[in-house]
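Hi R.,

As promised on Friday, here is the backbone we talked about, encoded as structure tokens. Could you run it through your design pipeline when you get a chance and send me back a sequence?
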């Protein structure tokens, strides 16, 4: 017997429509002949199209990591800040954050981009490596001063006890850091903060199609460092 849908808080949502049927994806198709031999080049093509097509913040990406030995997975949204010949780079706190604990025990990660306006997604899986201080500094100098202060002040993911003031604890830390760097024009990058590069082993490009029969192509890196491209079932 089917479960009573009235007992569910959410059941078969379809955006803001009064129907249980999901939207149909009709904005494009993807053929093997359209793909670059290299996933970084193909990603750059799609990312540029997302920018010119006014996709909202196309650099937004879901970063997923897993802790060992428990296997517990955690995800969060971050910004892609760089793409180079090695991989995809994001920046964060690597001293206290949950993701820092995860990659210390299991140096692997997955990325997922979703560009609704173009009905596209890109998935990336691979190992990770920290950027050195000089690489991180080259991006850090571009950040707003308030963001630099925040990087120093926030012990990311640690508890802000309500009995000690909650948000006020963070605000006090920010004021302390502002005083510390009051006369410093170029605030240095904290040693616990910096870039993480995802070195892809697989990259999937997904184009939405009608009836959930999407076009999916996966690049897989082989031992020689070249890429094999395969079409996947939707």
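Update: got your reply. Pasting your designed sequence below so it's all in one thread:
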């Amino acid at each position: 017997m089917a479960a009573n849908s009235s007992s569910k808080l959410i059941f078969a949502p379809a955006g803001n429509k009064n129907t249980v049927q999901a939207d149909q994806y009709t904005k494009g198709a993807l053929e093997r002949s359209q793909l670059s031999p290299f996933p970084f080049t193909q990603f750059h093509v799609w990312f540029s199209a997302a920018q010119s097509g006014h996709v909202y913040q196309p650099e937004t990406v879901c970063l997923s990591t897993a802790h060992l030995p428990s296997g517990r997975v955690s995800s969060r949204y971050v910004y892609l800040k760089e793409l180079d010949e090695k991989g995809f780079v994001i920046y964060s706190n690597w001293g206290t954050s949950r993701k820092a604990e995860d990659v210390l025990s299991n140096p692997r990660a997955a990325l997922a981009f979703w560009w609704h306006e173009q009905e596209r997604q890109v998935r990336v899986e691979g190992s990770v490596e920290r950027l050195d201080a000089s690489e991180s500094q080259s991006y850090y100098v571009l950040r707003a001063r308030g963001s630099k202060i925040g990087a120093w002040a926030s012990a990311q993911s640690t508890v802000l006890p309500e009995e000690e003031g909650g948000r006020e604890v963070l605000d006090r830390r920010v004021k302390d850091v502002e005083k510390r760097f009051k006369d410093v024009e170029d605030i240095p990058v904290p040693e616990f903060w910096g870039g993480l590069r995802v070195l892809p082993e697989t990259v999937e490009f997904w184009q939405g199609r009608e009836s959930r029969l999407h076009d999916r192509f996966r690049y897989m890196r082989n031992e020689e460092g070249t890429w094999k491209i395969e079409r996947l079932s939707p």
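One thing I noticed while checking it: Helices lie at 39-52, 98-105, 133-140, 145-153, 167-180.

Thanks again,
M.
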